[in-house]
Design a protein that fits this description.
Helices cover 12% and strands 35% of the residues. Strands 1-2 form a two-stranded antiparallel sheet. It has one helix and two strands; from the N terminus they run E-E-H.
Length: 78
Amino acid sequence: MPDRNAELKDCPFCGGWAAVNEKETGAADVVLSDGRIEFEYQKTYHVECCSCGMSTMECTTEQAATAVWNRRVECTKK
């Protein structure tokens, strides 16, 4: 299994290293055909700097969280 944090860029705020975090979010009720109710938990992912704590928003996939974290805007001097 590849290292899930290997493709993350350093923190744009402090230069620290970042990690992908996974969590289960609240349950959604699912009513089955026989009338029983079950709960489904959904996983979300975010990237967080291990030094300053800056993080991305919660994303539905690990790849989306990584893409949000790695996005940079190029600055041009005028």
